[in-house]
Amino acid sequence: MSAPLKTRERLSEVRYEIRGELARRARELEAQGRTLIKLNIGNPGAFGFRAPEHLQRAIAGRIHDTDPYTHQQGLPVAREAIAAHHAARGAHAVSPERVFVGNGVSELIDIALRALLNPGDEVLVPSPDYPLWSAATILNDGRPVFYQCKAEHGFLPDPDALEALVSPRTRAIVLINPNNPTGAVYPRALLERIVAIAQRHGLLLLCDEIYDAITYDGAVFEPLAPIAGDVPCVSFGGLSKVHRACGWRVGWAVLSGDEARSREFRNAMDLLGALRLCANVPGQFAIEAALTGIDTIGALCAPGGRLYEARRAVIEACAASRYLQLVEPAGALYAFPGIAPEYAQGFDDHAFALELMDAEGVLVVPGNSFNVPYRNHFRVTLLPEPAQLREVFSRIERVLDRQITDARKVVPLVPRAVNG
After folding, report:
1. Cα(72)–Cα(68) distance, integer angstroms
2. The predicted structure's pLDDT at residue 381
3. Separation of alpha carbons 306 and 296, rounded Å
């Protein structure tokens, strides 16, 4: 018998539990006839959301133009709309020639890191992170160096601690704002300090802004590029979240800042884009309509809107829980509850998630999947109806009762207030 095919060794360093072991177990249970509530992926279409009609019409009206390849950076009309949108925000030196359209932001993250990194180069990545960032760094022969965003600080980073991690091999700082998985929204003063770090050390800023218009209770999203000014910055956005069109796979990356400093990097991204020929063409015809058309997300995030009320249901459930505490998400589509410290010793987030799915039919993502040094958090999406989320947290409480009380860790306390 021939030896089994070997795979890339560095894959052993990659974690992506969002679609990993637990998701595979979920498919097994569904094949057995179980019905699961799957809160592991921020996938609006799976919860009844639809892409806005004016975006659908924009594609349908140009479908006869979608057969040929387009330019590797994207349709000219799409790149012009993206450049104009970012210039209107105040981004420096933005032009269609510095805009790249991809098959979702995920592809563009990979392209940007492949264009930037040599073996052993380091990228400063938040912890918790969206694990694609650390995975793409590893698979492009780089090394993710995690800067901590602690719950007690609202999941915001300490700029001094971040700067202390800079080494001669550091090439870039990654920001995710609004944040996945925590829902943190970064204030302008914090972004200014991080830009100053990048300027002092000659680093590229990579800012994942896919949730830019999804904020709650007066939280203000501050785009990074206008603050960065001449500092080279790549801002990532797309149609998946704000416009609820995940399956269209339409994302963009916008390079701003000093053109002379970033010309070689820009050319490298163009070359890598050409090697994959072009991005999905039909979805690109919706970009201009998305960026210039009516706001369809604001009402969902305001009091009475579905996302707002789903978030409220999670906040209230965590406040009523014996065991949970929550930094209230200010943006994005997720909450990141944690087990209170007095219950956290010996708690295993993966074992909890597995029992929650097997016993209660709910799939969540263990917090350690987001590259954190603790095991007492988990992520849920805010996309289900509020009533379903209240039911989910009733089931979560039952599992926590069994795991914590049966283990005789502590005596249950009275319900705790929300932290955050």
Report:
1. 12
2. 97
3. 12
